[in-house]
Amino acid sequence: MPHFDLPLDELRSYRPTLTRPEDFDAFWEKTLAEAREHDLDARFVPVDVPLSAVDVFDVTYAGFGGHPVKGWLVLPAGTTGPLPAVVEYIGYGGGRGLPHTNLMWAAAGFAHFVMDTRGQGSGGRVGDTPDPVGSGPAHSGFMTRGIEDPHDYFYRRVFTDAVRAVEAARSHPLVDASRVAALGGSQGGGITIAVGGLVPDLVAIAPDVPFLCQFPRAATLTERHPYREIALYLKAHIGADEQVFRTLSYFDGVHFAARGTAPALFSVALEDETCPPSTVFAAFNAYAGQDKTIKVYTFNDHEGGGPFQQAAQLDWLPVRLRG
Known about the structure:
Elements: H1 8-11, H2 24-35, E1 43-47, E2 54-62, E3 68-76, E4 83-89, H3 104-107, E5 111-115, H4 154-171, E6 175-185, H5 187-198, E7 204-208, H6 215-221, H7 228-236, H8 241-249, H9 253-257, E8 264-269, H10 277-286, E9 292-297, H11 307-322
Parallel strand pairs: 4-5, 4-6, 6-7, 7-8, 8-9
Antiparallel strand pairs: 1-2, 2-3, 3-5
Helix pairs in contact: 4-5
């Protein structure tokens, strides 16, 4: 697929005008306060796996509404003192996977906490966390679940789970609570940006080809799913555009980016029709932190830099984690 979005020189200065809800901050403060009324109840159960280089814990903690959320905590084998930690969020449709698929950050000497995504986990990576909350009429997938009202929207629950995942990781005695970073790709990248805007004391974030940014442009620019789910919903629910995009404005990565201050390493792919480059740059250019950089993959689609971006993270992130 050739380049289809704005030229790179325009992308580097691209700052769309988006309407941020007046009660955006209050909405999220209340949402997180309500979640914290439930005991975090983070439990770490050792898992016997045939991996001699790591120790693995099956994690359960209370997320949005006190609902149990699963995860993995993977540590270098024999860890005795607190380690800096990487909290990872997963791409659309995927779950936490199996322990042996989550080894890179422990191999680099860090604690690695992988959050399961509620309701997902049947799209390549298996998951174990149900979403017990229903919704009104929705298109197939997750993008329009509860889209009638920001209080009911699916990603209100997911972003809350993600903030609580940081709190759960920090609660483990072998994690250095003062040295925690967040990262993820695609949906995981969008969640990472949200967490970066909601958790003020992370040491770094690394969102790759992030999803969930500049919804109005994404929904009209690309024919690919998951953004296409929004357009198909509006095709059936004629006249609902204003309410739908008002709901989505509470979850837009551009607004969370404007709150983020931790050092940040983004990535973007210029042939990415799943998460169009302009939507990624909209979030990157809005990011409030001064220590930020973006890796550009000129001829790549939604795979982004793949292992090359992982190598870039392995070079960039440990410096921030170890101080």
